[in-house]
UniProtKB/TrEMBL annotation:
Ranges that cross the membrane: 43-66, 78-97, 128-152, 158-183, 190-211, 247-268
Keyword terms, alphabetized: Cell membrane, Hydrolase, Membrane, Transmembrane, Transmembrane helix, Transport
Protein family according to the UniProt entry: Belongs to the ABC-2 integral membrane protein family.
Gene Ontology terms for molecular function: hydrolase activity
Protein name as catalogued: Transport permease protein
Keyword ATP-binding: no
Domain of life: Bacteria
Protein source organism: Cupriavidus malaysiensis
Main location as per UniProt: membrane
UniProt-listed PANTHER family: INNER MEMBRANE TRANSPORT PERMEASE YADH-RELATED, TRANSPORT PERMEASE PROTEIN
A Pfam family matched in the record: ABC2_membrane
Domain named ABC transmembrane type-2: residues: 42-271
Its membrane topology: Multi-pass membrane protein
Length: 276
């Protein structure tokens, strides 16, 4: 399966060495961050509008079919329950796509050298790629929320929890995308990573259902899935009710980010599959 082609800002990449070294110019982190944001924003119809349309289709199909058949929480319609799950799913998938596709594209086209040539530290590279992924994930998530909110009445019980899980979730998937992009050497490997890890973990995390409707064995499996805590905690911010304790969910999500960030920084510092 071939990954969708996204705009590659080769010109911005070629200017990286000059921008980093020029007196009064942008520092390396800001330049690389600008390049990564510009990369997806130049084709926002594909990278932002298309995922929003996909989420609307999910909502229309599942909401229409299951609205009168599934009851999740008291006084909360199934469509309302579904909206935060679709928003968070869009945030996660697009955050992963941003960093992973950028790295694999740079490897294949050969312009990764323009990122490696400047004196960028592994911290700067990590921060630029992950923050750009967070920007893309949140942009898509906001678009999905604005459009799907018309179909259901939503509460914003705890705005802080919504923002915390959205940002942390996007950062985790941006970091995971960075690791996948470093590891993969061709689009097929990246597609396998996404199709056999990211997609199943996302769909089995409670986006379309409450895990309390599952048999005990599958409830246990769901509790071993970090994606479940991201989506459940995010949904708690809207309704004030959840399948798991939001504090525990935040601890799991925060720990997952720290572990993945440490791994990504180690790979970047060693130059694994980047400089060799």
């Amino acid at each position: 399966m071939k990954a969708p082609v996204e705009f590659d800002v080769s010109d911005a990449a070629r200017r990286l060495p000059a921008a980093v070294s020029a007196p009064g110019g942008l520092v390396g982190f800001r330049t690389l961050f600008y390049k990564e944001v510009l990369r997806f924003w130049k084709v926002s119809f594909q990278t932002v509008a298309a995922p929003v349309l996909t989420a609307i289709l999910y909502l229309l199909i599942f909401g229409h079919v299951l609205e009168d058949r599934v009851k999740v929480y008291d006084q909360i319609s199934y469509t309302a329950f579904l909206v935060p799950g679709l928003v968070m799913m869009s945030v996660l998938q697009n955050a992963f796509a941003n960093s992973s596709s950028s790295l694999i594209q740079s490897k294949i086209t050969g312009n990764l050298v323009f990122v490696l040539l400047p004196p960028l530290s592994h911290w700067e590279m990590f921060s630029a790629y992950v923050l750009a992924s967070v920007v893309r994930g949140l942009s898509v998530g906001l678009g999905v929320l604005l459009v799907t909110a018309w179909f259901a009445h939503l509460n914003f019980a705890h705005l802080g929890w919504i923002l915390a899980f959205a940002v942390l979730g996007a950062a985790i998937l941006g970091t995971l995308g960075l690791i996948a992009g470093i590891w993969a050497e061709k689009f097929d490997q990246l597609a396998a990573f996404q199709n056999f890890l990211i997609m199943p973990a996302t769909f089995l995390s409670g986006v379309f259902y409450s895990i309390h409707s599952l048999p005990p064995f599958w409830q246990g499996v769901s509790h071993a899935n970090p994606f479940f805590y991201m989506i459940d905690g995010f949904r708690y911010g809207f309704f004030g009710v959840s399948d798991a304790d939001p504090v525990f969910s935040l601890a799991v999500v925060g720990t997952a980010f720290l572990v993945l960030a440490a791994l990504a920084l180690r790979l970047l510092k060693s130059g694994y599959k980047l400089r060799h």
